[in-house]
Fold this protein.
Amino acid sequence: MGRNAWFETVAEAQRRAKKYLPRTVYDALVAGSERGRTLEDNLDAFTEVGFAPRVVGHQAQRDLSTTVLGVETALPVVISPTGVQAVHPDGEVAVARAAANRDVIMGLSSFASKPVEEVAAANPKTFYQMYWTGTREAMSQRMERARAAGAKALIATLDWSFSHGRDWGSPEIPDRIDLKTAVKFAPKVLPHPRWLWTFAKSGRIPDLTTPNLRSPGGEAPTFFGAYGEWMQTPPPTWDDVKWMREEWGGPFLLKGVTRVDDAKRAVDIGVSAISVSNHGGNNLDTTPATIRVLPSVAEAVGDQIEVLLDGGVRRGSDVAKALALGARAVLIGRAYLWGLGAGGQGGVENVLDILRGGLDSAVLGLGHSSVHELSPDDLVIPGGFTRTLGATRTADPLST
């Protein structure tokens, strides 16, 4: 990774992670679905929006802090929950520590490789994420466990429709690591001795189980075992989502909203917040970039609930643009995973510092003293940039 562990951009973190990690591990972080058009648009759309900076009147002090679902954070950036972070021995715990050191909220996936108790202990500002998977009894048990561990909010992710097939090929991920698997993957892993040494020093092997989905008295299912349960669970109705929100009984964020009618329906069932997300381009390909649909969603419900944005954030300037268009905060996924792959906990802290620096520069250049002052007046938005989905509210055929 070079003599200097510090990197100055998320793009450099990605380059180092690609060099440091075995190909199959790195490919799992890139992901995307089908042609990857949504994955590309999530990134490209940010470059289409420009800034309208001020030349005089800059503020010497700038406040980048905010609250998300009542939880204070030094930066309007939330760690987005992503599954099985076995790219590093400490996985989600390393990410949680990094986020805590930067006073940032940690989102933990129910498909994580580390238990919620360890992660919440490392970062008390932890939000727990769930899919609609298994029975209501099992989901209630998982919520109670997260609540007991100290999770401050629940994130419900409902937007993945199991899209398969990538033009560049899907990553080869084993179900578990055993002797047979180790022999099979040896040619791909051995050329990366530093990555192997990191695990050797820890005395652990990559953990591909999902301990947060362990049933009482049972064993943690493998990632693909948990994925299979998820695929076989009938999709939820709006009544089911309302049940989940009531069963949790605390701050509740619905992740995966891109349509105005869905956003309004989410308000109707009492959610605390929504995340405008297309699952990082891993769901239905050719779905518009989230920054394109954010303005319409924020305009429709932003005065009633908190609106967050997830997808394509790689720079602090991206954060500023999202806030100016109506987001209270953003969630980041690949950016911090590349930091984790490039440098463990320190790499994640490095990524958060990059975003802080870029956001602070944007707030400075736009003549503001707080992130809460950002508005569309600070931006140059080309004609035809935005997309409005589901503007005419229609009945939900899945509602009961």
In short: The CA atoms of residues 22 and 192 lie 6 Å apart. Confidence is low (pLDDT under 50) at residues 393-400. The longest strand covers residues 252-257. DSSP finds 14 helices and twelve strands in the chain.
